[in-house]
Amino acid sequence: MNTNTDWAYRVFEPHGSEGWRPYGSDPDRWQGAITAPDSAEGAKHAIGRIVADLMTEWERTGLHHAMHVRVFLWHDEEGDISDADFVVEVRPRSDFDTG
Length: 99
Hints:
This protein has 99 residues and is an alpha+beta fold. The protein has one helix at 40-61, and strands at residues 4-14, 20-22, 31-37, 69-75, 86-90. A hairpin with a 5-residue loop joins strand 1 and strand 2. It is globular.
């Protein structure tokens, strides 16, 4: 039986001692929902799509704009960050342009 799950997501960036805040100058761009197969692979697929979008954005604007972010993923609908089903931290290397 093939079923799908909706995953709500939001990307956050560090904000000093205040913790985390929504990522980017347009935070609405980095939140939403993704429908993926209802399986353990479905969550990985959803996170993979979000991280791929981040990488595409950073490549488009210049890799020096890549920054440390956290991707929060919730089953069905967004909740409190402490209740996220999955959290993936992305820490781009600071030496992208060398080598």
